Amino acid sequence: MSSSKKVVAIVQARVSSIRFPYKVLQKIGNKTAIQILLERLSFSKKIDKIVVAIPKDKKEKILKNHIVNLGNEVFEGHKTDLVDRYYKAAKKFKADVIVRVTGDCPLIDVNILDEMVEKFLLNKFHLVLNYKPPTFPNGLDLAITDFIRLKEVWNKARKSS
Questions:
Q1: Are 11 and 37 in contact (CB under 8 A)?
Q2: Nearest by Cα to 16 from 56, 45, 73
Q3: pLDDT tens per residue across span 61-98
Q4: What single string gives the DSSP state of each residue in the chain?
Q5: Residue 50 scores a pLDDT above 80
């Protein structure tokens, strides 16, 4: 529990990828990539809740069932509009601060995540990210914003892409 602000990690994931279908369900050792990611996120000292945001689509049922069986919460949202999916998931789970995580990054570093959340909260930033400019290797990408900024983007977005 980080502060009086509720910090929610929203993991975007899907199995319907064109380039590598079912990537998040691929086994690494005896665990799926998404399972490893969710376990690593659970070690964060700054995250209050972890939610996996998936497309609302019958093709995603296998992923939804897997996540629920692991004991994690799922939000089903728009298939292609990620801003809408993030906004509605953040709204449903009453997030003050949103940590954006992609489901295909099983080696996420929670120490980096916690440090970024701490800086976000202490400095009252609107956005903190570690990939523009590239700071860490691919797979460690994180973005943090607050609900107010996410709502502004959601209200102003004109294209689902």
A1: yes
A2: 56
A3: 999 999 999 999 999 999 999 999 999 999 999 999 99
A4: --SSSPEEEEEE--S--SSSTTGGG-EETTEEHHHHHHHHHTT-SS-SEEEEEEESSGGGHHHHHHHHHTT-EEEEE-SS-HHHHHHHHHHHTT-SEEEEEETT-TT--HHHHHHHHHHHHHHT-SEEESBTTB-S-TT---EEEEHHHHHHHHHH--S--
A5: yes
What is the phi-psi region of residue 22: left when phi exceeds 0, alpha when psi lies from -120 to 50, beta otherwise? left
